[in-house]
Amino acid sequence: MKQLQKIGMLLLVVLFAANTTYAQIIVRVRPPRPRVVVVQRPAPPSPRHVWVEEDWVPRGRRYVWHGGYWVAPPRPAAIWVPGHWERRRGGEVWIRGYWR
User: Fold this and answer.
1) How many angstroms separate the CA atoms of 8 and 12, rounded?
2) CA–CA distance, 69 with 64 (Å, rounded to integer)
């Protein structure tokens, strides 16, 4: 029975870790930012929503551009920290934005 409990706990840890991590793709040359001309942002869905600037999203073995969008903070007084490129051994990795 104890062995079964240990396996169950290990499975929960693995599932939690898999759910909270994301792919990191090391690129030697940053993908070019698309030339996007935004004349005006769309209206926010509510006064609570915060504008998140454009972002890069891992898809397969590369990054895909994702334009800006409105999002509701997960809790009151949360602040959006924008994503950024980080130098790593062998290239650069996009670090996604997050709520602080």
Assistant:
1) 6
2) 15
What separation in angstroms does the CA of 2 have from each of 13, 27, 49, 51, 79?
17, 45, 47, 49, 43
Adjacent-strand bridge partners of 93: 86
What is the rounded distance in angstroms from the CA atom of residue 83 to the CA atom of residue 9? 33
Q: What's the token pair of residue 34?
A: 């698309």
Question: How many Cα atoms occupy the beta-carbon half-sphere of 46 within 13 Å?
Answer: 5
Q: From the DSSP assignment, how many helices (H) and strands (E) are in the chain? A: 1, 8
From the first residue on, what is the mean pLDDT of each consecutive set of 10 residues in the chain (100 residues)? 42 35 71 72 94 88 88 95 91 92
Report the DSSP beta bridge partners of residue 81: 98
Helix (H) or strand (E) holding 81: strand 80-81
Question: Residue 40 and residue 3: Cα distance in Å, rounded?
Answer: 59
pTM: 0.61
